[in-house]
């Protein structure tokens, strides 16, 4: 397991450095790629096919709750994602699992926990703390619907959630306005929404509970 490449995504330099340090303690020969935003996360995954694992904080610039997790799972389904977050509410952990994470490590956990979790996930397993929260059927349905979106449609959806018009989305993503219209139509159909507002509400549902101050 020493010759692996791990992507660490966290916008807080000191916390990211702590994660990287713990990772190298557990796997001395690991190659680490560091990013600090949702956009650089996407770019790194597109440019580095050798990445075998992502350690992901939930609160980075450009991310909406679990949106980065869902995007990685949709665009790179073969790359497992372990959430590393200060928000370790049982419901958050359960939702991370339902949205496709292979593991969840609270930032308050001992340093050796990261090594244990990474080893379990790289071995094809999962690693989650004990959870009291029950499985949510609404989250399961939401995850199923969002999984139907292409990576580009997911980007358009996040722009919709920010209240951008088609022309603004086209500029933001470098697309033709007609292409954006086609994506919006497909998004609403796949998510079974009747309006852009309904779609935006679904994105809002990706925000973890008790998220105030999380990620620091």
TrEMBL record:
It comes from the Bacteria. The keyword Hydrolase does not apply. The modification 4-aspartylphosphate is found at residue 57. Residues 142-207 form the HTH luxR-type domain. GO terms for biological process: phosphorelay signal transduction system; regulation of DNA-templated transcription. This is DNA-binding NarL/FixJ family response regulator. One of its GO terms (molecular function) is DNA binding. SUPFAM superfamilies: C-terminal effector domain of the bipartite response regulators (SSF46894), CheY-like (SSF52172). Keywords: DNA-binding, Phosphoprotein. It comes from Stenotrophomonas rhizophila. Residues 5-122 form the Response regulatory domain.
């Amino acid at each position: 397991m020493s010759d692996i490449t791990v992507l660490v995504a966290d916008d807080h330099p000191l916390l990211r450095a702590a994660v990287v340090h713990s990772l190298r303690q557990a796997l001395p020969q690991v190659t680490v790629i560091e990013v600090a935003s949702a956009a650089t996360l996407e770019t790194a995954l597109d440019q580095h096919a050798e990445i075998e694992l992502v350690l992901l904080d939930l609160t980075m610039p450009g991310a909406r709750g679990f949106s980065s997790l869902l995007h990685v799972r949709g665009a790179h389904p073969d790359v497992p994602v372990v959430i590393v977050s200060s928000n370790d509410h049982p419901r958050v952990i359960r939702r991370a699992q339902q949205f496709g994470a292979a593991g969840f490590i609270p930032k308050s956990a001992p340093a050796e926990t990261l090594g244990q979790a990474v080893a379990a996930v790289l071995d094809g397993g999962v690693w989650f703390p004990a959870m009291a929260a029950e499985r949510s059927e609404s989250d399961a349905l939401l995850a199923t619907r969002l999984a139907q979106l292409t990576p580009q449609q997911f980007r358009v959806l996040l722009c919709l959630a920010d209240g951008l018009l088609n022309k603004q989305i086209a500029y933001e993503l470098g697309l033709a306005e007609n292409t954006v219209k086609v994506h919006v139509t497909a998004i609403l159909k796949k998510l079974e929404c009747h309006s852009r507002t309904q779609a935006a509400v679904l994105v809002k549902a990706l925000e973890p509970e008790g998220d105030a101050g999380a990620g620091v």
